[in-house]
Design goal:
This protein is of the alpha+beta class. The chain is 28% helix and 30% strand.
């Protein structure tokens, strides 16, 4: 009787190796698989809800330079206009309970915005080149108001990306209702039409691997009627002899990128103690707020 033939042992090795190579389930690699809106809300709640916290960052402004036009210049008076240049530069944010201080790192020009509840104190120290803290005081305290911010986080449509160092970058757009769309009271149709208006707020939050907040950036996008007017006059869309309030109200489909400006607030969570300058300003302005019954 013949015994069954056997395959050479050399052929069994690759067969066994092939059978043993059972594929593993791949770990989720997309950002949506590792983070969601709830993680952004949780990170912000932890960072802003602490009894005391500190951010460091920078304020910048992004806007196109106005085009020059032959035959003279266009002078426009607006409720926002004819003021000093808005403050830009490095800042420090310190919050203790319901009190928040936003202070420039520089002393000259120096800016301090102190908020206690609904009351806001603005202090500026200027040299030969004064600056305006109105936009900073109107924007950043509201953007960092925890309850309103978290409501916007929950409503927003978030997009997620994973950076090379495994940080999670979350981006979204908030409606302009988080801030006042226009400033001031009744001042006539022309002045009202020339007021800058908040269109939207672009937000970018960076979370660490443990999903704690590392930094956040707010870009407040405003429609600037002055810039729009200059552009359309330069392009010949308007008669330079007379401009009415109706000429300044244009549809969204007629607006161009040059018509907008962005006030940008970049903030990074800091574990370091507040600077001596911020400590001194905080104590001084807290006394003023208490004395004036805020």
């Amino acid at each position: 009787m013949h015994s069954p033939s056997r395959a050479p042992s050399s052929l069994l090795v690759p067969i066994l190796l092939t059978l043993g190579a059972v594929p593993r389930a791949q770990e989720p690699s997309t950002a949506e698989a590792v983070a969601g809106a709830a993680d952004v809300a949780s990170a912000l709640q932890a960072a802003l809800g602490a009894a005391e916290h500190r951010f460091v960052g920078r304020v910048t402004k992004q806007q196109d330079e106005p085009e020059t036009m032959g035959g003279g210049a266009v002078v426009v008076i607006s409720r926002n206009g004819l003021s000093n240049d808005p403050f830009t530069g490095r800042i420090e944010v310190v919050r203790r309970g319901d009190q928040t201080l936003i202070a420039s790192k520089s002393e000259l020009p120096g800016v301090a915005v102190f908020q206690d509840g609904n009351a806001t104190i603005v202090q500026t120290t200027v040299g030969s080149d004064p600056c305006d803290a109105t936009t900073l005081a109107g924007d950043l305290p509201s953007l960092m108001e925890t309850e309103r911010l978290l409501r916007e986080v929950e409503r927003a449509d978030w997009q997620f990306a994973v950076a090379e160092d495994q940080q999670i970058v979350a981006t979204a757009e908030f409606g302009g209702n988080l801030l006042s769309r226009r400033a001031g009271g009744p001042a006539g149709a022309m002045l009202d039409a020339m007021t800058k208006k908040v269109e939207r707020i672009e937000v970018e939050a960076t979370l660490a691997r443990d999903k704690s907040l590392e930094r956040i950036e707010f870009r407040v996008v405003r429609f600037n009627p002055n810039a729009s007017l200059r552009r359309r006059l330069a392009e010949g869309d308007l008669d330079s002899g007379f401009v009415s309030p109706a000429d300044l109200e244009i549809g969204d489909d007629e607006k161009e990128e040059a018509d907008f400006e962005r006030d940008v607030y970049k903030l990074e969570v800091s574990q370091q103690p507040a600077s001596d300058r911020s400590k001194q300003l905080f104590e001084q302005l807290a006394i003023v707020a208490k004395k004036d019954g805020f």
